[in-house]
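Let's practice the habit of predicting before peeking. Look at the sequence and jot down your guess about where helices and strands might fall. Then scroll down.
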Amino acid sequence: MFEIIGPVMVGPSSSHTAGALRIGQIARQLLGTEPGYAAFQLFGSFAETYQGHGTDLALIAGVLGMTTDDDDVRRADAIAVERGLEYQFTKGSGGQYHPNTVAIHLSGGDRTVRLVASSLGGGKAEVQELEGLPLRFSAEIPTLVLYHQDQAGFLAKVSQLLDSSGYNIARLALERWRRGGDAITVCEVDGHLKSDICEVMRSSIPGLKELRVLQAES
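Done guessing? Here is the structure:
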């Protein structure tokens, strides 16, 4: 049924509102703290219609942590001012992306996140790039994003810990800037991720620097 009607959301288009809000939520979850600055570079249809379709409000609402059924989505720009979030929108060019795509640079505290993501329709979203690396994931199911040192045995340790804790790995992908350098692994699992598994991973996986958990929100 969700595939047909999508989530309850202010229109006129789920691609331009619900999907955009979900992209903002993913960026916020990756940042892991309250954002103070957000830059949105819009591509394709997003760039042409974002004000009329409310894509700008949906993206701001997402990075502020709102859900699709939140009545305050309509005034997300005003709430951003109240919460001290500075933001800007620019139009990008290039035909390599899906028509409804946005590049987000989000920062807060000492952290920054850069991602490129597309709205696929029906409220669905897909990350195309993370920190410039070609990592693709939807975060529709619980997703671990691990920032780590590229070293032998890392994926084996991740798989071993998840398996011994009863999680089924649906998808595992690693990208790195160079051999032995910094890397990012995305791991999608079936079932709700409990906080204790994250603590176990942080304390027992050599080379793990940061860990973020992405869980779908309404």
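How did you do? The first strand starts at residue 37 and ends at 43.
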